[in-house]
């Protein structure tokens, strides 16, 4: 609906076709590192605007970056934009249609947004204008109806505009939309790049400077009080000088706490993102070997490692600053070299005790992990235990595990108490003894005051260093349990652990859904060999398969013959041991995982597939973008009815928007199987792989499902028992 006036955003938006250029310009303007990969993007911007997000994700990945979608409600767009920069925004204007806005920064106090224009100049515009343009993406269909209502009210501007905004806001209050795509480094990128993006080196340097200034104020206060007290000149001037030193330390301490807190939050978020990415990128076989109990335990250990690593690092860093100052002041006091030697020897003794604590902490951690793993496994197998195990024996193993845990906890707590008591109480007497020779030799009162201040500062520093060292020792022990996830994060999609010229070339997800000509192979396997790491023999040997567009292939075999392994190789969940797997003539190493997954979708076996606690629509549209469009919901209803789930939809009060899963509507095995099939068919792929997807269906329902699959799957691979 054209208003006949020029849009305020005219000339400030980037055409969709310039998405790659907009991303690169925004990254440079935001001073993000551009760790380019050797990936290339196949084709330009898609004609289907609903797939623009997939294409922009591919472009960002090819540049070594990542786009994080910011979903929000219609009424909360402005607050979301305040936290989204740097980001790309979809906006709709009358003159240009759908365009991209490169948001560089926002100011809540001034109510402005700083954007990067296509000529790479920076412009300031009202934040409300940008908010309105983003909201227009979901308002467009309602504006004509709202305007018809307003015409009968005979309101004039500006009341008419305010009324339109109020009506649209009320109608769309609970409507979700993608407010922005925040540009950031992928979790698996080099740690140095992440630290640079967070300005971590400069923030750590600021911490050190603040710590030195604070301790300088403390030492100056001690010198002033000591000088006045020992020489009998404690007049008003000395007191004012001492108070000034104390007051100066207050804002410095506040700045230190704020800097440390914000840096800890940023580093914690980075670590959690890397851990989550690594957990999702673990090889399938490795994840299976651990079991759910082990990975729940690893989750707990990762939280403990994060807290210990951050707390221990900051505490130890500040303690080293205090200890260095204490050592330098000790040299100028009456203790001299003797005091410095005593301080070093004391720290060495504490270091030996802290190292010994690492073994005790490892034993405590192992017993705790064993208990967590056993608890989860017993919860999952509770029904089996009720049916097959005598109640009198249920607690035998639990009691033994608890006893081992209590013993390990007692050893760790006792050792920690000894270390902390020695660190808190031991250094001050040693420092005073080291000061006595200088005092007996007639040291000045000012020198004695400085020596006492150095002893107190050193005692506090040693106590902090001991606490930080114990935390770091614990973090080092816990690191072993989460290291596989961190290693997997470095190999995740978007990771740039190698220089661009050394990285393998990759092809980002294709934007075209058109299959190749029928005389060309779509998917091809040649002499594929695969063996599980713990298996003495190969599961697949010299396996070959050629699949052309539109073909339907049935793979049959007995249990353990490798059917499911072959399905996981086809869908990209596993890499073959040797041989060649080609998709559109390109091998798996050439594709990004996202690119391979955009062409092939699978429905794994029933025990490997799950109904997620959410709406039925979310479960069947899991492979599509969120929030779902009305077209997506309509397609989901149609497909569910074709799969014989029409009666289920009629029973559900909310239809496809009904909550299902553990906390919602309970589904039978047959209904779940059909949802798994619908999930695979709705992913807009070229090849659908169904692994024993019809085992829970009766013959009549299976014929209906097979007819639907036959009609909707572009190319089909069905795996079944003979």
Automatic annotation (TrEMBL):
It is a multi-pass membrane protein. Residues 496-518 are annotated as: Disordered. SMART domains: AAA. The chain crosses the membrane at residues 204-225, 237-258, 335-355, 427-456, 462-482. Pfam families: ABC_tran. It comes from the Bacteria. InterPro entries: AAA+_ATPase, ABC1_TM_sf, ABC_transporter-like_ATP-bd, ABC_transporter-like_CS, P-loop_NTPase, Type_1_exporter. Keywords: ATP-binding, Membrane, Nucleotide-binding, Transmembrane, Transmembrane helix. One of its GO terms (molecular function) is ATP binding. This is ABC transporter ATP-binding protein. It comes from Myxococcus landrumensis.
